[in-house]
Amino acid sequence: MSRPRADLCITHIGQLLRMDPAASAGDETGDPTAGLDLVLDAAVAVQGERIVWTGKQAELAQAVDTSSAEQLDAGGRVVMPGLIDCHTHAVFAGSRAQEFSRRVGGASYEEILAAGGGIHATVRATREASLDLLVASAKKRMRVFLGFGVTTVEVKSGYGLDCDTELKMLEAAAELNACQPIDIVPTFLGAHVVPREHARARTRYVDLVVEEMIPRVAERGLARFCDVFCDQGAFTLAEARRVLEAGLAHGLRPKIHTDQLSRSGGVELAVELGAASVDHLEHTSPEDASRLARAGIAAVLLPGATYFLGRHDFADGRMLADAGCKLAVSTDLNPGSCHSENLPLMLNMACLYNGIYPREALLGATRWAAEAVGLGQEIGSLSPGMLADVLVLTTRDYRNLIYHFGVPMTYALIKRGRAVVRPLDAP
Fold first, then answer.
1. Helix (H) or strand (E) holding 91
2. Which of 79, 101, 209, 384 is the most exposed place for a label (fewest CB within 10 A)?
3. Does residue 144 share a domain with residue 41?
4. How confident is the model at residue 32 (pLDDT cuts 50, 70, 90)?
5. What is the C-alpha to C-alpha distance for residues 348 and 47, in angstroms, rounded to an integer?
6. What are the start-end ranges of the E strands in 48-136?
7. Contacts (Cβ under 8 Å, ≥6 apart) of 146
8. pLDDT, tens digit, 9 for 90 and up, residues 309-342
9. Domain boundaries, position 159
10. Looking at residue 4, what DSSP letter applies?
């Protein structure tokens, strides 16, 4: 049997976290590494854009033809899949720093909205921004993501709330995908909130989303998913159903923001329609957690949003995990409720405030995050055949990615088999 030929070999890996879907994800034995598929003294071989082999360093030469391969010596460091941020609003214009100062000073969200702030301020700025400005500002955010070891980012629309601006945001996401190394997964979120001009005619706005926005987005191939914010003060369950069913009819798989502010029934709708993910879940019941687990739908924790809003009703991650949910963790990067690209920091918060274990948090930013964006067969693990999205950490202990919080730990980053952060670039 011929050996696969490698173009790149990552060698002398102290701890290799393969996140192999074939490895057990359970914790029946109390193993703190369950599901991580941890290999010590390891190596990884890459051919083109794909992983061709992983295993013990001592077995590399016999298993793989390395005669013409570039060598990346990990020097005993941790190697794992590139991180995946499965829920962001990374395309937007404007700043809400002044609003943050007011909120810290005691102003309520309702007072800020009445003064023209809140999401409506971002909508106004995004409508006024050019396509080039949206791309340029989002590209800067992607560079920050790279520094934290992120190789795939889901990006939602939802700050246009009119057809032209929603299309412009998704066009910006498409251009962003082409002009920098992070893979962008685009999601249409026209049903984010009801814009001010439709406040007295919300049915007309839902009609606009269903009858004009979704068909045009689908016709141009600008999104993979259709999302809706189904919650108190946003869209009702009936409105969410209309939007998601229209998306499905046009080939857009459902996602749903739900149970952030109250239990809304969004989980049952997501299960019925075969959603890729259900996100927020601060007020989800044990019964709904069981429904998600049985359906195999990714449950996305967004602890940074709860934290940044100064709330204390963090989603019960322990309950969701114990029910058997595929728990993902994301930044929810946006200008109003979580202005941060620091995904490792969110993993720390998920452990401390959502109650999940470090191994679950790591799976939540790799394997289960990949499921949340419909790419579980391509990314999220370092199995042969998967895309070679590989993160080399500065540390020799994988737990430090969560324990030593708030600092970048990217020593090197490989995206589709190509180095996008090289060791000499790293701190």
1. none
2. 101
3. no
4. confident
5. 34
6. 50-56, 70-73, 78-81, 83-85
7. 181, 182, 410, 413, 420, 421
8. 999 999 999 999 999 999 999 999 999 999 999 9
9. 84-372
10. P
